[in-house]
Amino acid sequence: MSVANVLTLPRARKLFVLKKLFRQGQVLIGTKNGINKVFTTPDDFLHGDADGDGIEIQVLRNGKRELIGLYNDFVVGESGGAGTGYDMITFRKAPRKNETLLVDYIKDGSC
After folding, report:
1. How far apart are CA 80 and CA 88, in angstroms?
2. Smallest Cα–Cα separation from 46: which of 25, 74, 22?
3. Which residues is 72 bridged to in the sheet?
4. Structure pTM?
5. Across 5-9, 27-31, 50-54, 93-97, least confident range
6. Which of 46, 75, 88, 110 sits CB 3.0–4.6 Å from 106 for a disulfide?
7. What mean pLDDT comes out for the span 55-66?
8. Three-state SS annotation for the chain
């Protein structure tokens, strides 16, 4: 059995807290017009994780999962500047008016 599959008390507590903070099918805030590439989420979200769990926001465009990364579909950022909390998505290709944008994320409980 892999150590990663062992449910310890600290890991169980973390998973319980994350479940309470999970947001699914949230609508991004911003203008869809084929020009604007920057959108925000209703809440700050967790990005990455110090213990290697790799928590990332999931972005769906017209039901298709977008890929995070500089040379992929979008990058994340902090609209208020470094240290203010991740709440911003910048797309590589600007969404058009008729496109559906939804996000799933873990709300940053420290805010």
Report:
1. 9
2. 22
3. none
4. 0.80
5. 50-54
6. 46
7. 93
8. CCHHHCCCHHHHHHHHHHHHHEEEEEECECCCCCCCCEEEEEEEECCCCCCCCCCCCEEEECCEECCECCCCCEEEECCCCCCCCEEEEEECCCCCCCCCEEEEEEECCCC
